[in-house]
């Protein structure tokens, strides 16, 4: 994308592109489909990050007293602005992170959806009343605003994941300080520039802050700051391992949404055409750069050959449709940067080295841009998955799908493989068998935060709680009761009587 086009997108949002030009300390925003710089931005330093944190903290004192439904009305207005500018924002997501235009539109739609959801929530957040064991006592719980939330987001969902946090946090009465990925600052600037005025017009402009700065020292200082009772961070397991102990050291709360090493199990009874479509989208969509991307595939032996043939054919077609993410006829855009391409190639070399085979795809396309053909890989036959996953343990953030068959009738084995990695984000089973479904959903079934039957691992709706177990971090964002992470629970007991009966029947007189 040319800089003029980028400036036009910003202008359509009534914003100016704050391009400071190349220079010391400025951040280059790279278009992954060309490798060229789109713009250069000034970065926050410790002093400006401190000022923004302080402003958010001061704003919290007022926002927490603003009625919940009134906060919901602000979030509804934010959703309206997003609706009105969906196309421009999608173009920006597409340009900055290389997501195909249709998927980029879907990402903006997720933002709109969560605003709708949070607006409804703003009239329904509530606690319960419990029966007290003491006469004339009333016991209930209430949920109160928690404080400023630090939201660290990743490049692959540069705006949607922030919005899951921000929309919910704001209706809960919490300001949000956003530290976006340095690979996607333009998306953050645009969304902030579009939505922050909604809050400003209502006198709560400081409830939305944007800090674009390096991890060291800016993000580290934010993570350590006790003014953030909650740090919500999305990214790699390595990032979570760096953030969580720092927040724990000050006894703060974290909401972590980290890596996935997601598997699909295909039983012999499955609709193989349906499975093929779901696997292809899950594994190759977004160029394999979703945390929910399908990375491992376990197929019941008697259909392994048939499914492999269908997938190989699908991958060959997909390989022809890798290219410019702005072109709606393409299915796969570029990887985020040259390092991601290098990791993709290195992993395929390692797999071949260990006796695995690349059945389809796997080529790096000539530049400019960071394009690769999604790879379908047969796991090295010598690798004993009951003992180790070898290279498959690693979440290579690129489109590599590992395929392995399991003996007929041994769903238990496939479930053990599904659960055998350190992450526990998403999982799926393709089957026509009710028994298999019940096994998958039983306490001995999938150990992931997301478990789907006859659909793929990626592409969750916002209405459910999103997140996973084990090294995925345990956090839940977006729908269901994920809002509880953004509030503090208070258990309240009122004595309406004249006596003072003690709990547990204790006598103390
Ligand atoms: C992510 O990759 O961090 O379920 C989020 C999905 C999307 C969200 C992915 N709705 O694939």
TrEMBL record:
InterPro entries: Ald_DH/histidinol_DH (IPR016161), Ald_DH_C (IPR016163), Ald_DH_CS_GLU (IPR029510), Ald_DH_N (IPR016162), Aldehyde_DH_dom (IPR015590), ALDH7A1-like (IPR044638). The active site is at residue 257. This is aldehyde dehydrogenase (NAD(+)). Residues 25-491 form the Aldehyde dehydrogenase domain. It comes from the Bacteria. Its EC number is 1.2.1.3. GO terms for molecular function: aldehyde dehydrogenase (NAD+) activity. Pfam families: Aldedh.
């Amino acid at each position: 994308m040319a800089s003029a086009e980028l400036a036009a997108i910003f202008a359509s949002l009534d914003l100016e592109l704050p391009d400071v030009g190349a220079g010391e300390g400025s951040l280059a925003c790279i278009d992954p489909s060309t490798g060229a710089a789109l713009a250069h931005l000034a970065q926050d330093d410790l002093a400006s990050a401190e000022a923004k944190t302080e402003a958010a903290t001061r704003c919290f004192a007022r926002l927490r007293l603003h009625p919940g439904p009134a906060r919901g009305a602000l979030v509804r207005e934010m959703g309206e602005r997003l609706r009105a500018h969906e196309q421009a924002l999608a173009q920006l997501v597409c340009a900055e992170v290389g997501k195909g235009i249709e998927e980029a539109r879907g990402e903006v739609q997720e933002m709109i959806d969560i605003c709708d959801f949070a607006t409804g929530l703003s009239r329904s957040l509530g606690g319960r009343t419990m029966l007290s064991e003491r006469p004339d006592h009333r016991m209930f719980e209430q949920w109160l605003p928690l404080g400023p939330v630090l939201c660290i987001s990743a490049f692959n969902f540069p705006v949607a994941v922030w919005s899951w946090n921000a929309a919910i946090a704001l209706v809960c009465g919490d300001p949000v300080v956003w530290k976006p990925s340095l690979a996607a600052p333009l998306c953050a600037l645009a969304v902030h520039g579009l939505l922050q005025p909604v809050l400003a017009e209502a006198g709560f402009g400081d409830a939305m802050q944007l800090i674009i700065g390096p991890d060291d020292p800016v993000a580290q200082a934010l993570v350590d700051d006790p003014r953030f009772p909650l740090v919500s961070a999305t990214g790699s397991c390595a990032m979570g391992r760096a953030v969580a102990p720092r927040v724990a050291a000050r006894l703060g709360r974290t909401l972590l949404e980290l890596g996935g090493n997601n598997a699909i199990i295909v039983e012999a009874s499955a609709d193989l055409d349906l499975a093929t479509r779901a696997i292809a989208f899950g594994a190759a969509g977004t160029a394999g750069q979703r945390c929910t991307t399908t990375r491992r595939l376990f197929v019941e032996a008697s259909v392994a050959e048939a499914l492999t043939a269908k997938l190989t054919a699908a991958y060959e077609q997909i390989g022809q449709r890798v290219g410019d993410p702005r072109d709606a006829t393409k299915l796969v855009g570029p990887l985020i940067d040259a390092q991601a391409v290098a990791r993709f190639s290195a992993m395929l070399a390692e797999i071949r080295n260990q006796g695995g085979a690349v059945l389809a795809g796997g080529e790096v396309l000539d530049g400019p841009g960071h394009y690769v053909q999604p790879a379908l890989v047969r796991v090295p036959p010598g690798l004993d998955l009951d003992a180790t996953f070898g290279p498959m343990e690693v979440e290579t953030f690129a489109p590599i799908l590992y395929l392995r068959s399991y003996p007929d009738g041994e769903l238990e084995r496939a479930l053990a493989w599904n659960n055998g990695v350190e992450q526990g984000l998403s999982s799926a089973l393709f089957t026509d068998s009710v028994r298999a479904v019940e096994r998958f959903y039983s306490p001995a079934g999938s150990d992931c935060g997301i478990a789907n039957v006859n659909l793929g691992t990626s592409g969750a709706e916002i209405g459910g709680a999103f997140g996973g177990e084990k090294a995925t971090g345990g956090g839940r964002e977006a729908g269901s009761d994920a809002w509880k992470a953004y509030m503090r629970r208070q258990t309240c007991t009122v004595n309406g009587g004249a006596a003072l009966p003690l709990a547990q029947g204790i006598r103390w007189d």
